[in-house]
Amino acid sequence: MTETADRNPLPLPPPGGGLKAAFARPKWVAGACVVALTGLGWLYLGILIAGMGGTLSALGPGMSPFDYLPRVLTMVCQPTFGIALMPDGTAWGASGLILVLLMWMAMALAMMLPSAGPMILTYAEIAETAARKGERIVSPFVLAAGYAVVWFAFAAVASLAQFVFTRAALLNASMASASALFSGAIFIAAGIYQFSALKHACLTQCRSPFPFFFTRWETKARGVFRLGLQQGVFCLGCCWAMMLVMFAVGVMNVVWMAALGVVMTVEKMLSGKRFTHAVGVVMIVIGVVVIGMSVAAHWPVHHV
Asked: Coil, strand or helix: which one is 212?
């Protein structure tokens, strides 16, 4: 089976009808998987935000326009989530930690699955060709599950980091940054990582999933799950620093969630280093400006 033949399923006979036909079209399954899981992630985040009460502008820069939206959902969600959603440095319990973990898991689905869409669809394209030839295939859901496990592990680490940052008074009760120096340092670190060899090595793997799947093709669920894990590790190596920017702009800042999600998706779709380096420069500049403004604001106080 040549690479050219595998990427051109047109000469192959169509599958039969019914449920079997649906699963013989992995691209449809893959597309539905990405859309559904991403939608669930954003829906859960929306419910959490609606249940917070108060002013949403406290969640970080860019969130103030949401204060003018109808708050009907607040009355529905508040009794369910309430104060446990945003524990302060002394009120972290098991329920609060679980809610924060679920929040980070939802963020991973909402922000990272769209950027993984081309990778999942590439697998589905090869699988669809194999299915039309009568070969055994594994559902793209298994691949997506392996990918998600990596980001759920990241969510667990990020939840623990949030606990530490909150106890250190670097995050406030609204899960927004309480220190301009902290925010600026995160931006600068994330910007510098954009120029690293590890970043570009992982990004190269994320941009070219076809050779990866073609040379490592698996017909068992365990093998496909392992492929998903490997792709998840590549994606994590590419995007972890940008995900940590959420600590700088407010963990529940959906404006920055969407913006960073778009940046990471575009970055994987483009070739070369120009866009990646440009993002790095912007982040470093933002970090320097944030720190500079903080120092300038406190400078007169130190000289009174």
From this structure: helix
220 CB neighbour count, 10 Å cutoff:
11
- One-letter amino acid at 108 equals A
Residues pairing with 171 in the sheet? 177
Phi, psi (deg, nearest 5) at residue 177: -65, 135
Tokens of 174: 């609204």
**Which residues are bridge partners to 80 per DSSP?**
none
Torsion sign over Cα 276, 278, 281, 287: negative
Measured distance CA(30)–CA(26) in Å, rounded: 6
SS3 content of the chain, % helix, strand, coil (to 5): 75, 0, 25
Please, are residues 27 and 124 in contact by the beta-carbon 8 Å criterion? yes
Weakly modelled stretches of the chain, pLDDT under 50: 1-24, 70-90, 304
Q: Which SS3 state, helix, strand or coil, does residue 170 take?
A: coil
SS3 135: coil
- What one-character DSSP code corresponds to residue 63? -
Residue 261 region, left (φ>0) first, then alpha (ψ -120 to 50), else beta?
Answer: alpha
Q: Tokens standing for 120?
A: 């999942």
Q: Is the pTM of this model over 0.90?
A: no
